[in-house]
Design brief:
Layout (H helix, E strand, L loop, with lengths): L2 E5 L4 H13 L4 E6 L19 E5 L5 H10 L4 E4 L6 H6 L1 H22 L7 E7 L23 H20 L3 E6 L1 E3 L8 H10 L4 E4 L5 E6 H14 L5 E4 L4 E3 H15 L11 E4 L14 H7 L7 H14 L1 H7 L3 H10 L3
Parallel strand pairs: 1-2, 1-4, 2-3, 4-5, 5-6, 6-10, 7-9, 8-12
Antiparallel strand pairs: 9-11
Helix pairs in contact: 1-7, 2-4, 4-5, 6-8, 8-10
The chain binds nicotinamide-adenine-dinucleotide (NAD) and 2'deoxy-thymidine-5'-diphospho-alpha-D-glucose.
């Protein structure tokens, strides 16, 4: 394989995947295609931007004509598809952007592969998806690759739809594919609309930490570089047509997670113990808020030998340190358009 297209490589997970592939695979030419929405940020990639095996191209996967031309221009052998609208709350406010990028954009990519790949041998379309397609768990059980799809938000329904389309193109047109469905990621470069970076930013500025409902919802958290490692392994060794679940075996109720984060922040900021916890504010619940996600990742562990490398305390401490060292990054992306979105959601806290 010589030319790899990464879509959404300027986003949170995509930038970690792009870095891993560029630095770890000098034999691969990496094209990063991203339309640079509010969530895309080329600052995430300054350390690799001058590498000879890396190239950034600004473009929108929803633009069918552009995508066809793009595939006619570059000899793409493999795709790791991460470009998406990714925030559940935004999907509740504006579902259409999610239908366009996550469904239509994915189909445009699949069509471009289908039209340009005359010979399927040596080609691969790797679709990055989410555990949210499986719906919501009660207090017991784990999502496996066999769990029936039951998406419950516009975001998860759009991702479920794209997963089905990827499998349909595999079965109908013979496109070689792999898919992975991962749990909640956290780590450096995550846009501060998601729980962990939002809370870090608010604690830093002594603003309230909005907790939806009673904070009893459970998520399974995975450090982003562990996810990028899993993606690299699946890309290289995953079996054609197969799906892999990826999780951290690391379930936390939101309120307990935030209490841990508050303790770490108090320590790092040398504040009196309990200062950050005092900022916790229970707010109106998210509409249709899924109670619990938890992943059984035994397939990827058994078949590919992957497992998370960091404990949550280690990963969270690293994450807090990164955000404290990169306050300029945070300040720049939380000004302007994002600030008005945030104030709209939560009021000017
Ligand atoms: P993100 O929102 O941080 O980044 C998305 C990137 O896609 C941005 O760089 C954005 O500019 C780009 N993009 C959006 N629309 C585009 C378009 N029409 N054309 C080209 N580029 C476009 O997202 P993320 O959190 O890094 O998630 C990446 C992928 O991983 C998504 O597919 C998401 O569903 C999936 N995923 C995320 C998580 C998580 O916890 N963040 C967990 C499991 C799966
Ligand atoms: O499970 C994988 C998914 O994880 C990914 O597919 C999504 O792209 C990603 O955004 C994430 O979705 P969540 O909705 O779980 O993540 P978020 O950080 O938005 O919320 C985590 C939990 O915290 C959830 O139960 C809602 C709650 N929450 C979130 C925010 C932003 C709050 O209580 N307060 C908040 O301000």
């Amino acid at each position: 394989m010589t030319t790899l297209l990464i879509t959404g490589g300027a986003g949170f997970i995509g930038s970690h995947v792009a870095r891993k592939m560029v630095l770890g695979h000098p034999e691969i030419h990496v094209l990063n295609l991203d339309s640079l929405t509010y969530a895309g940020n080329l600052e995430n990639l300054t350390d690799i931007e001058n590498r000879s095996n890396y190239q950034f191209i600004k473009g929108d996967i929803v633009d069918e004509a552009f995508m066809e031309k793009f595939f006619a221009t570059y000899p793409i052998d493999g795709v790791i598809h991460l470009a998406a609208e990714s925030h559940v709350d935004r999907s509740i406010a504006n579902p259409m952007a999610f239908i366009n990028t996550n469904i239509v954009g994915t189909v445009n990519l699949l069509n471009a592969c289908r039209n340009s790949w005359k010979e399927m041998k040596g080609k691969l379309f790797y679709h990055i998806s989410t555990d949210e397609v499986y719906g919501s768990l009660g207090s017991e059980g784990l999502f496996t690759e066999e769990t029936a799809y039951d998406p419950r938000s516009p975001y998860s329904a759009s991702k479920a739809s794209s997963d089905h389309l990827v499998r349909a193109y595999h079965h109908t047109y013979g496109i070689p594919v792999v898919l992975s469905n991962c749990s909640n990621n956290y780590g450096p470069n995550q846009f501060p609309e998601k729980l962990i970076p939002l809370a870090i930013n608010n604690i830093l500025h002594m603003k309230s930490i909005p907790i939806y409902g009673k904070g009893e919802n459970v998520r399974d958290w995975l450090y982003v570089e562990d996810h990028a490692e899993a993606i690299e392994q699946i890309f290289q060794n995953g079996i054609n047509g197969r799906t892999y679940n990826i999780g951290g075996l690391n379930e936390w109720q939101n309120i307990e997670l935030i209490r841990l984060l508050c303790r770490i922040m108090d320590e790092k900021l040398e504040r009196t113990s309990g200062t950050s916890e005092g900022l916790i504010t229970f707010v109106k619940d998210r509409a249709g808020h899924d109670l619990r996600y938890a992943i059984d990742s035994s397939r990827i562990e058994d078949e590919l030998g992957w497992k998370p490398s960091l404990t949550f305390e280690q990963g969270l401490t690293r994450t807090v340190e990164w955000y404290l060292e990169n306050q300029e990054w945070m300040r720049r992306i939380t000004s302007g358009a994002y600030q008005s979105y945030y104030n709209n959601q939560y009021g000017d806290r």
